[in-house]
Amino acid sequence: MSTATTHDEHHDHGAPSGLMRWVKTTNHKDIGTLYLWFAFIMLLIGGAMAMVIRAELFQPGLQVVDPNFFNTMTTMHGLIMVFGAIMPGMVGLANWQIPLMIGAPDMALPRMNNWSFWILPFAGTMLLSTLFMEGGGPAFGWTFYAPLSTTFAPASTDFFIFAVHMLGFSSIMGAINIIATVLNMRAPGMTLMKMPLFVWTWFITAFLLIAVMPVLAGAVTMMLTDRNFGTSFFDAAGGGDPVLFQHVFWFFGHPEVYIMILPAFGVISEIIPTFARKKLFGYSSMVYATASIAFLSFIVYAHHMFTTGMPVAGELYFMYATIMIAVPTAVKVFNWTATMWKGSMTFETPMLWAIAFVFLFTIGGFTGLMMGIAPADMQYHDTYFIVAHFHYVLVTGALFSIIAAFYYWAPKWTGHMVDERLGEIHFWWSVISVNVLFFPQHFIGLAGMPRRIPDYSLQFADWNMVSSIGGFAFGLAQVFFIYVIIKTIRGGKAATDQVWEGAHGLEWTVPSPAPYHTFETAPEVR
Amino acid sequence: MFAKTLGRTLSVIWGAVLLLGAGNAFAGFSDTLNLREGVTAISQRVFDLHMLIFWICVIACVAVFAVLIYSIFTHRKSKGAVPATFHESTTVEIIWTTIPFLVLVAMAVPATTTLLALEDTRDADMSIQVTGYQWKWKYDYLDEGISFFSVLTTPRDQIEGDAPKDDTYLLEVDNPIVVPINKKIRFLITSNDVIHSWWVPDLGWKQDAVPGFINDAWTELKEPGTYRGKCAELCGKDHGFMPIVLIAKTEEDYAAWVAEQKSAAEAAAGDATRTLTMDELMAKGEAAYNANCAACHQANGQGIPGVFPAIAGSAVATGDVAKHIDIGVNGVAGTAMQAFGEQLSAVDLAAVITYQRNAFGNDTGDMVQPADITAAK
């Protein structure tokens, strides 16, 4: 018996060293770390592109880049942030946390886990390589509407299509792994309705991914054959329809936005109860609200297409269905509010980010409701009002939740407390600059500035300049974040097992930093 | 270049800081805060609906934020707050599911009536077809037989910062669309290449121009005036440079404008039989080239490698004249090269082809006359 233990310790209990550790790893913590670093690097690359966009829009006139490259920047910024930063960031959190939170030793399919990560750097590199090709990279917006992305697109578009296919494989495999893990690997006594909300939201998100990533693959495959093999899916001259592309794209694209935000809801639902020292209010209604949002996401997608010439009956249906999403979303915000109500709150860095999330996501949610009103959307559509809206839900929503998650779980990952003062500087710097960046975009959008333009008429000059100044400050704040991350990994106050006074859940029962292997013997959940 | 931009940028920032610091209302800040009310009954209804939803959202937002802020300041550990133990209430959940639902129903009612009015294009007095091209608009007056293109006129040096920008910077065109007031005008909107979107904010809507399909929309203006808008759907490189200028005239002025357009069209038709000299062709050709070709093939004829072919030294511009004319008139199917036969007059096309064959070092010495173009059409 003792011999067997020694044997185990030599070969299984520590992390192998060297580069090959990371290439060959099947450990959920290693893979989670890889995902998070990949997401962070992509965040910085996509952020650099945003800086180019804001520099060009700082003043009217063309100063920094030519219009074609500007379009490439908006396109690549969107694609990289969605597929490179937010989605892998959320998968990284899932990899680290789901096994720890349900008492599992690892993900259910560890080898596939390795593969689903290692596809990403290649897909990302292929996507970025289009920037250096003759004719430039994709310049048709992250929504790549046909025929601009088919007949009228540069040659590099075929590389973009292949990159999207690979990203899709990665996401589908990641989703299968999460479903298999949640269904099969829970510790004894961990019933579905006892699972932490972060696990629930990811479980539901994984089904969304499996349902819609193949639809995206279908859309890009039709593009591929339209471009190269003489089909006419999106070409009216051959009997096709350019608007068909938008139907297929948004059938993927709308659930996609919930793919990015549902795990964020999960993160916030973990953090707020911890720092309010009070159980999450309405746990089961939170689960049902998440499931309702996921279901509704499939049947509202054409609200992105109110101006394409839909029949009025279609517009009415999609308007009614869309504004219904406000109900489960409101329930979530009310539940977070009720969780904080009569709690005993402290405001460590993760809580600050979580509270900012609740406030700012709510603003993004309300502008989303306004856009659901079809006749008003005839004015809002394709303006900076839309840009402001989706940056409030994706930056101050999804991205803030990932940053909050870092501050919340980093002590468990690294064994060191994050320097509270640095975290608070990062928070206030970000939360002020992000509002200077995006709030004025509501104004210029309503006043009539279309999105995706490199130059604008003079009435929009003042607020664009304010927005750009906020943009540069927000960008710089995330460079500061690199320092915070590296400092935390290198050292800091030792974290206790429980880390936070009000923390509950299985991940807080293992040592900090979490050992390479955890829950080899399943814990008992009562 | 960079130092110049930086210097200019810093001076502008400083100017803005001074103005704000002095408490001056910087007009641009306060004028661009909200949706435009517009100039039609529909745009007014859309604006009112927008304000209604806006205020509902503001009230709901303030209510939630007030509770949150109160809680943040009161229920904190540093003030000795002891956490309550409640964490569930079906009654409360039902209440706060029902209330938003009822509010939404209340919002849906005016939204529905406005939408139905907005989409009712029946019983129009006249129809204008609007066609999007990369990167200009074409207007066909179906009842009058008038047809013309509308192209940005903002000079390059204003865009590149070498000249001061006018008030109508990027909002000015050569041939505005002219409409009469007090008539229900139906727009039939389509595209020749990619998807565009025709948007004049003062009319209260935008409508996508989809190649191969026709969408319709309508307006009825009450006051003469000039209303400006832009393409709203990303349509390629110069998406930001295809504005719309709509001029509403009284019925008499509109009738005069129609008569003027018709006689101008007849005069142009007479031109098509003239024979021009090389100098005339080159001068007209350069102007037409810069207005119609330079966006893609560039002012120096070098194109953009991998995207738009060069004219300088190209096989087409230095080879068979008939093939060159054919491409100019009929375009190249499946590419961004449009059929200019319907866009430009025979004179302009002859001139631009002559120009392409003799500028940029092509020096073929070939001359193309309007009659050659007419023969090829």
Feature tags:
heterodimer, A: 526 residues, mainly alpha, Cytochrome C Oxidase, Chain A, disordered N terminus, B: 377 residues, alpha+beta, Helix Hairpins, Immunoglobulin-like, Cytochrome Bc1 Complex, Chain D, domain 2, 5-stranded mixed β-sheet, 12 helices
Which band does the percent of strand residues of chain B land in? 15-25%
Instruction: Estimate the global geometry of chain B from the Cα principal axes.
Output: elongated
Number of helices of chain A: 16
Terminal CA distance of chain A: 30 Å
Would you kindly provide a written description of the structure presented here, covering whatever features stand out?
The complex is a heterodimer of chains A (526) and B (377). Chain A has a single domain (28-508), classed as Cytochrome c oxidase-like, subunit I domain (Cytochrome C Oxidase, Chain A, Up-down Bundle), CATH 1.20.210. Chain A starts with a helix and ends in a 36-residue tail after the last helix. The model of chain A is unreliable at 1-11 (pLDDT under 50). Chain A is built from 16 helices and no strands. Chain A has 526 residues and is mainly alpha-helical. Chain B has 377 residues and is α+β, with helices and mostly antiparallel strands. Chain B has 3 domains: 41-118, Helix Hairpins, CATH 1.10.287; 127-269, Cupredoxins -  blue copper proteins (Immunoglobulin-like, Sandwich); 272-376, Cytochrome c-like domain (Cytochrome Bc1 Complex, Chain D, domain 2), CATH 1.10.760. Chain B has a 5-stranded mixed sheet. In chain B, strands 4-10-9-6-7 form a 5-stranded mixed sheet. In chain B, helix 3 runs antiparallel to helix 4 (90-118) and helix 11 crosses helix 12 (370-376). Chain B is elongated, with a radius of gyration of 28 Å. Chain B starts with a helix and ends with a helix. In chain B, 36% of the residues are buried. Mean pLDDT of chain B is 88; it is low at 21-25. At the A-B interface, helix 4, helix 8, helix 9, helix 10 and helix 11 of A face helix 1, helix 2, helix 3, helix 4 and strand 7 of B.
